[in-house]
Amino acid sequence: MTFDISKLTIPTDPGIYLMKDSDAKIIYIGKAKNLKNRIRSYFNKNQNYKTQKLVEHISNIEFVLTDNESEAFLLESNMIKKHRPRFNIELKDQQRYTYLRISDEKFPRLLVARRTRVGKFLGKGKTFGPFTQGSSKLLTIGTLRKAFQIRICKTLPKKVCLEYHLGNCEGPCEFKDAQDGYPKHVSALQDVLKGKNHAKVFTEKLEEEMQQAAKSQQFERAKDIRDTLIRLGSLQTKQKMEYVENSDEEYFGIGVQEQSASVMNFRMINGVIRDSDKFFFDLVGDNSFSNFLYQYYSTHKIPKFIFVSELPENHKLLESLFSEQSGFNVQILSPSKGKKKDIINLILKNINLIHSKGGDPGLVELKEILNLPTIPNTIECFDISNHGVDFAVGSMARFVGGVPSKPGYRKFKIKTVSGRDDFAMINEIIKRRYYGLLEENSELPDLIVIDGGKGQLGSAVDALESLGLDLPCISLAKENEEIYTPKSKKPIVIPKYNSSLKILQHARDETHRFGVAYNRTIRKNQIK
After folding, report:
1. Would residue 372 count as lying in a domain?
2. Among 522, 288, 270, 525, which Cα is nearest to 413's?
3. Distance between CA 401 and CA 36 in Å, rounded?
4. Are residues 342 and 453 located together in one domain of the fold?
5. What is the pTM of this model?
6. What is the spatial distance between Cα 225 and Cα 232, in angstroms, rounded to a whole number?
7. Which residue did the predictor score with more confidence, 65 or 361?
8. Which DSSP state fits 298?
């Protein structure tokens, strides 16, 4: 039974809405500039199937008002992380991001904070984060512990351990001075975990203390402070490297298929793709590219430049929010040309690959470039090997999924052509090959490739037409690697580094190799 919104008083303010099922469980959280207009839109008749399914489960709707749309964005993101409703976008790697916890023990420890499925933190104490790049953050925990003299023992011992003798802990388990000074270390650690400004202030304070200790000839104290500063410097260097490597620029492409969206990203380091992720979400309610980006950057470092295949809605608002969170100006751009556009195109090609359920990227590219009806999973390539008037053979290599399928290779002795007439020979072997497949009712290829130019292609097309076949057929001319198609006078030139051209070249070279080997065998037998 559909929920009756006429019984609900809906405000017109900005805010978030929480949709609940019959068990009072939150199943969807959304935001709106005008809550009344947004909620009513769910109950229109022209909604997609998945939104209709959401509406069928609604038993109640609650509202939380905000002063503006920016606050709604932030509150929505936090509430989604907390409740993880089934119909909302959930990043598949949300659990990878590290939180640190300072325990509430008498002498607190620094630990990795763990979360339950519903987002609740395990263990008592103060939690800091999220920190991206979890594994490297784990490595810095040791640096933080040493820098702030934080104990690592699970149970406080009665006597100092090796960490004390290594200078990593002052030994609050045994010494009264260490017990008195421990809260100061914990307070300083908390300040650093809160952010860069606190760390800078703390570092400046330490440097001042070191100078004072040196002037007072407290050289041991000055040395300890110097060691702490070195450790902090190492930590800050790591943080800076992480920023440079992961925050320079990031690329996103989005593809929509039926009622779901696929997003793929590339993270660039010094102009080189170093990392990539794929994300999927249903197009339910407010789930959108804009929402995805906000969710994504709630747990990832924000770069200065975010390049996208299409500008998300509210992209100016997103820029403002990201700039405020990061402390520098952030731009969201959709490139129209150049290398950045090429990277976006590469992402979109990968998304097309996902949607095509696993074809080779080069084959997907061939489908687009040649405007083929399907991805050319099966390619048959033909060549003529001539060695004098008496020695001419035809050869065919069969590629399946972009790789050779040698059981499908075929060789032909030329039977109806005398002299050196490559065009007529191509015509003969094409007729023989596909007449045989028609007779056997066998599967026909998705693409036929002829080694040669426009003339060889014309002969192959004539042969296919004589059999009543309309199969995609092209030729590849070796000199300039130009591709000829039956319906265009101008050849297609694919960049030499593209995987689509490499598949065609591999097929052509295999066919040629196979034909030359067959020709050589015939000549040897003739001599014998």
Report:
1. yes
2. 522
3. 52
4. no
5. 0.40
6. 10
7. 65
8. T
Q: Which of 283, 425, 272, 264 is CA-nearest to residue 351? A: 264
Separation CA 300–CA 242 (nearest Å): 11
Report residue 415's pLDDT band, with 50, 70 and 90 as the boundaries.
confident
Print the SS3 string covering 301-327. CCCCEEEECCCCCCHHHHHHHHHHHHC
List the structure tokens of 437: 């497949």
- Domain extent at residue 433: 367-527
Could you read off the pLDDT of 319-329 as tens digits, one per residue?
999 988 888 89
Find which of 270-274, 278-282, 514-518 is predicted with most confidence, using mean pLDDT: 514-518
88 falls within a domain: no
Assess contact for 70 and 14: CB atoms under 8 A.
Answer: no
Please give the Cα distance from 130 to 255 (Å, whole number): 29
Residue 302 · residue 325 · CB < 8 Å: yes
Return the exposure string of 238-265: e unless at least 16 CB atoms fall within 10 Å of the residue's CB, then b: bbeebeebbbebbbbbbbeeeeebbbbb
Which of 85-99, 188-202, 299-313 is the least confident region? 85-99
Identify the CATH number of the domain in which residue 283 sits: 3.30.420
